[in-house]
Amino acid sequence: MFRKKEKDDIQAQPYTKKTFGVQIIMTVAAIAFIAPIFIILNYSFKGKRELYLSSPLSLPESFNLENYVKAFDKLNLATTFTNTFIYTAISVLILAILCGTTAWAIARCTHKFFKFCYIYFIVGILIPYQALFLPIYMIGYKLHLTNTRYGIIFMYVATGVSFGVFLMNSFMSTVPLELEEAARIDGCSVIRTYISVVMPILKPAMATLIIMQAFQIWNDYLLASLYVSKKQLKTLTVAIQSLFSAQSSDYTTAMAAIVISVLPIAILFLSLQKYFIKGMTVGAVKG
Amino acid sequence: MKKTKKGTMEQRMFRQYLLLVLPGFIIFTIGLIIPMFMAVRYSFTSWDGMSAEKIFVGFQNYIDLFKDSNFRDAWLFTIKFTIGNTIIQNIVALLFAVALDSGIKGQKIYRTILFIPCLISAVIVGFVWLKMFSNVLPALNDLLGTNINFLLFGKKETVLSGLLIANNWQWIGYWMLIYLAGLQSVPAELYEAAKVDGAGAVKRFFNVTIPMLAPAITICVVGITTGSLKVYDLLVSSTKGGPGRSSTSMIYETYTTAINGRQYGYGSAMSVTLVIVLLLVALIQVKGLKKREVQA
Amino acid sequence: MKRKKVLCTVLAAMMIASMATGCGGNDDGKAGGTEKKSEGEKVTLTVLAGQSTTDAGIEDMIDEALAEKYPNIELEWECVDWGNDFQPKMQQYMQSGLPDIMIGKAQDVSTYAPQGVLGEIDSKYVDRGLDAASENVTIDGKTYGLVYNALYQGVYYNKTMFKENGWEVPKTQEDLQKIIDDCKAKGITPFASHMVDTWSIGNVTMQFAMNDVFNNDPTWGDKFRDGKVSFSDSKEMQTAYEYNKLIYDNTFPETFSTEQTDCDAKMVQGEAAMKVSGSWSIQNFLDIDENFEFGIFPFPNQTGDSKLIFEPNITVMTSKDTKHQEEVNQVLDLLTSDKDLAVDILDYTKTASMLKDVTPTFKNPSQEDIDKYAEEGNIVDVTLGNNQLVWGGFQEENAKDIASWLQGDLSFEDCLKASDGRVGASSAN
């Protein structure tokens, strides 16, 4: 086996002409990328009148938190935040478990039905659920899923499962068959084999899946507005969107609301960055 | 005797595997596949989305689609947007990844900064760039005394570039991370071997890096293409499909037709067409890219 | 292994808990719905409110007033954006059963009442509103909507600027042209506009059509559907479209990148003299400068007899199949009889009253002009036009063509032809 070049192995070396040039280019790129974020922050501290009378690039006169207070209030933050968190957390956990078992069964069982299953799930990645707006609602209504917490979670699982199976399936080659066979010879049932042998190996894959889906679900707009529009069930993105719809005049509050909504997921990313990257590494290499 | 036993054993295994697949299968079928077939059924009716009666009109909706210039324009925009995204995002993300992997200082900081935009929901990204193009960047003109046209969302000719900028700003960091991960797992020995063979930096990139990145490229290309074909959220809060209809994507057109225009049957025909195209595109891509992977 | 088991248990517990809360929420709603209520028992009514952003917040005011007068009723609000989400939500509910109360715009009545899903509003409550309010929400003698407030639409103008330059309020197109010419000579932009919002193009086009088409021919839309008139043939309708060009030629060059708030700010700062708009701009104007002096006049038509346009806005509709007619009526009673609440809402939304004997107290420099037109009877309800040619799927789509035409991507003939081709979508039914 090759020795893997781990990212921590890359030491910052003394500059050569080339690396210095690269450093400068990347710095410019990074500034360009971070600029809009600064603008959001900048706007979020400005007063309404200040926004129009001063240059958009000027710093706020004072760091007043009025916009944030307003945004907290308008977004009904305690409720919307908890809702979004619950929907996201439970959906991704279910997805991780479900997609793991499904993908594994598809990879291991050679029966025709499973071959069909694979294609069946893959097709799902391509179906734009955005276009299936009304039938999705109607079927949800018939099953009493609309305006309930489990209904929206059900839908997130349903729309995420196909990508999950695709992703997990591409990881299956990392699971050594010998281990599974050994477990089976020891008399483990299929499900037992999965739990004791396969699942531990799939952990990084699950992490990848959880990360990728968590973003999508946290930021989802369409399904949330479709399934949970009652005030006490609303999500953060839906609440924010209403702040910048037509005829709205309160951009400064909207900007504060954006900061509030991005902050938790940004903190999550910054603190779990190591795991994020690790998860993605596996995805990119073994995909 | 032995054979039948093996048969039952296989059957038992089959049943257990089935047990593992079924929950996902059922949820997926109810949540997505059945609605899909409902849409197919509606696409043969002139249903307005409200009334109880759904009049069967056969293939009329599909015939009308071919005469509908808005539908054609929406396709054109979506295709341009997708091609632009696939090319720019892949190349820039890969270049960034290579740059970060070249041993520059503060790699983690760059990585974090480039990644942050994709933590933001597309609805918000659209809104932010609307403000950027119409207020913030023109103010930069005043400051620098330059006269660059930043009003990209205001003209038919430039709205596509504006949206590409917004979309790339959001996603480049994400794909870059995948490429970076791929790069960092390329065995150092391969590079050294190539060096010994006398291959220059460029040659090493094309002969070692790219083939080793093949799985990552597959993920990125398929991900970006199918994602771009489904673009909708980004438009809702930025151009709203305008000016005129110049940035109306397929999903956007479908949504306005089916919902605002109360032509649910016709809109369903649009989504069915879209699904078919998406399927074809992905199929071709996966086939083609997998082939290259094998060759590599 | 153990850790995994624990994890699984926790997961399962979380799932069950979440479902329980989900179910719980549902059951609460149903308990209120099916059980016969006894004295003091709470009844929960579901309300779907399609709001403009300026309306958001009135639900809390109504809740507060309701708690005082009818504490037995609780409203379960579902507030959505009228422009984007009201119609889709209504479509959903048509499949599954309407909420007890819906709040939309007057033009929604003609969309949904013919579907046979709306309940008739008791004349007791209708009579508490202005007569003009019920006209366009009444179908075959039955009133399905309770109109609560109204917006005014027309040309807002900078009073100070008009005074300084000696401009009179224009009555005819020639008058208007003179002002435009004078503006240009003095380096003032005549019109503020924000065409990045396609809805605003659609909105002003309807304003133009009201005074150049529907004033002479209130059934133009019906004739259009009968094939007797068309956009390609109708001189009047073409005039209405062409006014857009007049605005476009005399506005900010960056109008297709300017949003409403920016546009209103420029207007207040004296960068433009006039703006074709509606009451929704008032709040913006006063937010930026509370001393901004502005008035309103109707956009002059060809014949010089334009009327100021008003649009009934918040309109309360009820479900025909509600299980709580009595409580729904109590809510209607509260809305029509609580004058303090009405004034609060009107002040908050900066709109005009559609209830008898209720006048908002917020500062509105254009009120003087509105009163003048109202006294002379020179006001007209735009719901007429919106019923003849519906907004969603027709006006909205036409506006996109107009935008393309203004930008030179579509010929005027093709723009008209496109509107003609949309005839099937021009009526809600």
From TrEMBL, chain A:
Any one GO BP annotation for this protein: transmembrane transport
Keywords: Cell membrane, Membrane, Transmembrane, Transmembrane helix, Transport
Alphabetized SUPFAM superfamilies for the sequence: MetI-like
A Pfam family recorded for this sequence: BPD_transp_1
Span of domain ABC transmembrane type-1: 81-272
Localization: Cell membrane
InterPro entries with a match to the protein in the record: MetI-like, MetI-like_sf
Membrane topology field: Multi-pass membrane protein
Main location class: membrane
GO CC terms: plasma membrane
Transmembrane segments: 20-45, 85-106, 118-138, 150-172, 193-218, 251-272
Source domain of life: Bacteria
Family per record: Belongs to the binding-protein-dependent transport system permease family.
Name of protein: Raffinose/stachyose/melibiose transport system permease protein
Native organism: Lactonifactor longoviformis DSM 17459
From TrEMBL, chain B:
PROSITE patterns named among the record's database cross-references: ABC_TM1
InterPro entries: ABC_transporter_permease (IPR051393), MetI-like (IPR000515), MetI-like_sf (IPR035906)
CDD domains in UniProt: TM_PBP2 (cd06261)
GO cellular component, as recorded: plasma membrane
Transmembrane segments: 20-40, 74-100, 112-130, 172-193, 205-225, 264-284
Entry membrane topology: Multi-pass membrane protein
Start and end residues of each ABC transmembrane type-1 domain: 75-285
Major location (coarse): membrane
Protein's UniProt keywords contain Transmembrane: yes
Gene Ontology biological-process annotations: transmembrane transport
The keyword Cell membrane is annotated on this UniProt entry: yes
Localization in the cell: Cell membrane
The entry's keywords: Cell membrane, Membrane, Transmembrane, Transmembrane helix, Transport
UniProt-listed PANTHER family: ABC TRANSPORTER PERMEASE PROTEIN, DIACETYLCHITOBIOSE UPTAKE SYSTEM PERMEASE PROTEIN NGCF
Family: Belongs to the binding-protein-dependent transport system permease family.
UniProt-recorded name of the protein: Raffinose/stachyose/melibiose transport system permease protein
Lineage, opening ranks: Bacteria, Bacillati, Bacillota, Clostridia, Eubacteriales
UniProtKB/TrEMBL annotation, chain C:
Endpoints of the signal sequence: 1-20
Keyword hit for Lipoprotein: yes
UniProt keyword annotation of Cytoplasm present: no
InterPro entries: Bact_solute-bd_prot1, SBP
PROSITE patterns: PROKAR_LIPOPROTEIN (PS51257)
SUPFAM superfamilies (alphabetical): Periplasmic binding protein-like II (SSF53850)
Domain of life of the native organism: Bacteria
Alphabetized UniProt keyword annotations: Cell membrane, Lipoprotein, Membrane, Palmitate, Signal
The protein's name: ABC-type glycerol-3-phosphate transport system, substrate-binding protein
Species per Swiss-Prot/TrEMBL record: Lactonifactor longoviformis DSM 17459
